[in-house]
Specification:
Two copies of one chain form a homodimer. By secondary structure, chain A is of the alpha/beta class. Chain A has helices at 8-31, 35-38, 61-72, 129-137, 169-189, 199-212, 249-255, 281-291, 337-340, 349-357, 374-377, 418-424, 428-442, 446-449, 473-478, 480-485, 504-523, and strands at residues 53-57, 76-80, 98-100, 106-108, 142-146, 154-155, 230-232, 242-243, 272-276, 295-296, 299-306, 311-317, 322-328, 330-333, 344-345, 363-370, 384-388, 395-398, 408-416, 450-457, 490-492. The first copy, chain A, has a five-stranded parallel beta sheet with strand order 10-2-1-14-21. The first copy, chain A, has a four-stranded mixed beta sheet with strand order 13-12-11-15, with no helix packed on it. The radius of gyration of chain A is 27 Å and the shape is globular. Chains A, B: Its EC number is 1.13.12.3.
């Protein structure tokens, strides 16, 4: 059907298939329809979907985005959700929340009132305008999530001469960059780079290096600086403070500690990001407020069959154990591919194989409630990440909410791939012990302050079976375009069909894209 | 009196006077009483101040800190405050707030409900444990103040080949550091720095440079990177995003634009800082809640006279115009020196001259209410500073509150010294026009979005007469120790008697220090 006439959109897909992204983008730019401007808001669509039925599988952010936008267009939407709550991976664990991993015991979250861990998505980049479009539209209050804190710690076990020290990233950055600036200044002054630099370039570069590295004006040497922190902070009266001594260049180099940061953070990380006040699931709840009446909860999809005229989805009502069916004109399936592969369907073998080909990332997180915010009180760390090379830990992240309150929930580890599999094999209490053994090496008060834990291993969570689609470049070439196209009356959407893997924006933008295609077909 | 026995404290002052800070700190460290640990909380004092009277001049943060702590010790405290509200410079302009500068017309703030400008102190560093001690103690809710935002703009009028462009600091940092890393890598690989670096150092340094600058693995060249921002952001479907092109090294050097940032921010600036929710004056109000019953408002100090047995302060009740006196055992004067110099007293000529010798910084700020948050909606800038070299502007700072709401109040300029004097000579509406002319060069929507302004020139504000004490190194040597010592029964406190000039922490820590001295004397 859709093959009969080539829409502009279809042409673009073909351009991409034939000429790759380059041709796609060139074509789009030639048409003046740059993608960048398109993704700040849902597609503006004309026509009504009245009388057309769309069944949406999964009430995560992709599914609810589609339900909301298609509902506004007049479609009769029905969302099937296996759980008894909406949101997909957009979850927040707080008192009353419980989780039973596959093959595991039930974990009940017992954090104090007002404390929580976002064990799924936990931060919103400032340029994810699609996510921010809905937080604004649905009036979800946001607060800053401190993603980078130079006054946190970096702690490396295999850090050579700087191993097992609690170092402030500010000091490491100041000293590495200071020493590097001094070294380059020496080369420039020694006329070693005259082939590269003209006289005016040299003057400007020396000026820059002196500024960047705060080098001594007279001899262009790095001798430490205030921003790395003081040994004694300046104060009242006769206390101008006492500078701390810089770390030596050779020690820094040998420790490889400079590799924990980079010139700027990589996209899409930013020093400050956003989190909804009170927990990430505020976004899920806001969507649910809008489309909840269209969601059938405890509806576990069993099979998807699609013919010439309609698509029929069979699901099990897990409350009653009974099988039921929903038929619709189109189906938008937002289930993770790791789950969809286990659903019976009449997809072609090629499509089934494509679904099964995509790996999902094992991802683990643990929230630890501490009865005292020792990281703030003892170490003046307010948010951000403690970076470490300890196996299975990766980061200990401090909460960006409840500043200065009595208690706090920190993230004890955030692991993926191999280490996530290892740690997830432990029981919840073993995981907590594992996290405590690491954390107490860095914070003396860690173990004594610990009250309760809540952990998740996403690859062991029913209806998710993984953190996010883990695309290889090869799979992006081979099966991604196929999955993106869908089959018959079924289209797929979710973070797995975007280049924003693992981000809520990927789910939303993918939904925008696919609902537009459904609408195009319905209007055809 | 205090000279009779040399307390440890007095010894330290002498050590500082004789041997400078170095001797002071060495002595303290030898005694194991490092200052750093001392300033996290008020001094722990024994004994009762019962029956002793202390008159405190000024209900700013220094005065209220002293009133609170001395009150807890049992002293009868009386605070004289010239204004009809407490807080000193810790003010927030919101609807209902008004200000008449000396020689100026009354400005009434007409911002919408929920919007404000902190025209005095506006950010709290994470290591200012003294300020944070009271926000915690008084349960003042804090939120993150985004002090550094790599996705804001830098806009230089005299930026050579990059003049008048809205550049993201992230791009400038990525490109400058990338090019610099490449250049140094070239020198290292070319064995130009073999005198400085051993073989292992070279390997480690090349590894670091490749990481810091994200250099191409094969040829160690810088070719741009994701963190500088994309031309087209990655999105759903067939859109992996399109990288943007790096700025050229020669253009960057010639523009001198790299000098807007540094390896790390200088102390006490941090990427994220704090602000009280709803306005900085929440701190003033929290103190006022505690000590308000001891404050006599509209009490304008006229004279200070101190004899053997007591100190007598005369003030004018500006409501009635009548002169009244207060006598006390001790006086803690927290008035700015710029104001105190105009108060009649029987201080020695030397002390009077010391007071008069200290310059105060002219400081100006303007808040502009915008009916639309175009910086967020159009440019995805959420907080932080737009850096510019435009005369009298310095920074346009975006609010770290009311994210995604309809309106917002931004800081249109933050100027000091010469440019503050020039701008402050304008009428309030001329200042707004001045700010708009600058801002509209950077943001097309600036002027059309403007609704109302509120500005302050602290050097023109009665009872302040300046932003903060502007200490020269020479004055720190000559008159600072004298002022710190006080005279007779009068001690001075405030940010001007600290090395935390202009910060609230300076006022608080100075008060802690001087109230301890009062207590020592009272107990002697």
């Amino acid at each position: 059907m859709e093959e009969r006439s080539i829409t502009r959109r279809q042409f673009l897909y073909r351009a991409a298939a034939v000429g790759g992204t380059g041709l796609l983008l060139n074509t789009m730019n030639a048409w003046g329809i740059g993608i960048a401007s398109r993704v700040n808001a849902p597609p503006v669509l004309n026509g009504s979907g009245k009388g057309k039925r769309v069944v949406i599988l999964g009430a995560g952010l992709a599914g609810m985005t589609a339900a909301y936008e298609l509902g506004k267009l007049g479609y009769a939407v029905q969302v099937l959700e296996a759980r008894d709550f909406a949101g997909g991976r957009c979850q927040t664990a707080r008192k009353g929340f419980s989780l039973t991993e596959l093959g595991g015991d039930k974990q009940a979250c017992t954090f104090d009132e007002g404390h929580y861990i976002n064990h799924g998505p936990w931060r919103i980049p400032l340029h994810h305008q699609s996510t921010l479009y809905y937080t604004r539209r649905f009036d979800v209050p946001l607060e800053v999530m401190v993603n980078d804190n130079d006054y946190s710690f970096v702690y490396l076990e295999s850090g050579g001469p700087l191993a097992r020290q609690r170092l402030r990233p500010a000091a490491v950055k100041a000293d590495m960059r200071g020493h590097v600036a001094e070294l380059l200044a020496k080369a420039v002054k020694g006329n070693m780079l005259d082939q590269e630099l003209g006289a005016e370039d040299k003057r400007a570069l020396l000026d820059y290096l002196a500024h960047e590295g705060q080098l001594d004006q007279a001899d262009l040497r790095y001798k430490g600086r205030s921003g790395r922190g003081y040994a004694i902070n300046p104060g009242a009266g006769m206390n101008p403070g006492q500078m701390s001594d810089p770390l030596g260049f050779k020690e820094l180099l040998a420790s490889r500690i400079g590799n924990v940061y980079s010139a700027v953070q990589d996209f899409p990380m930013q020093n400050t990001m956003f989190q909804p006040v009170g927990g990430m699931d505020a976004i899920a709840k806001a969507f649910e407020n809008q489309v909840g009446r269209h969601i059938r909860y405890k509806a576990e999809v069993q099979s998807i069959r699609h013919g010439e005229r309609e698509v029929v989805v069979t699901y099990k009502d897990t409350a009653s154990g009974k099988l039921r069916t929903v038929s619709a004109d189109y189906c938008l399936c937002t289930m993770p591919l790791s789950v969809l592969r286990h659903v019976e369907s009449d997809f072609s073998d090629q499509f089934k194989q494509a679904i099964a080909a995509v790996a999902y990332a094992p991802v683990g997180k643990i929230g630890l409630q501490m009865k005292r915010r020792f990281w703030e009180e003892d170490d003046q760390i307010y948010g951000g990440h403690v970076l470490t090379d300890m196996e299975g830990i990766n980061t200990i992240s401090l909460p960006s909410s409840n500043w200065q309150r009595k208690k706090g929930v920190l993230l004890g580890y955030y692991n993926y791939q191999t280490s996530a599999i290892e740690v997830s094999a432990m029981t919840p209490s073993e995981r907590a012990e594992f996290a405590l053994r690491a954390g107490e090496k860095i914070f003396p008060a860690y173990r004594d302050s610990f009250e309760s834990a809540f952990s998740v291993a996403w690859h062991r969570v029913q209806y998710n079976l993984g953190g996010w689609a883990d695309w290889s470049e090869e799979k992006r070439q081979s099966v991604y375009p196929l999955l993106l196209k869908g089959e018959g009356r079924v289209l797929l959407a979710g973070e797995h069909l975007s280049y924003l893997g693992g981000w809520q924006a990927g789910a939303i933008e993918s939904a925008w894209q696919q609902l537009e295609r459904i609408h195009e077909r319905a209007m055809a």
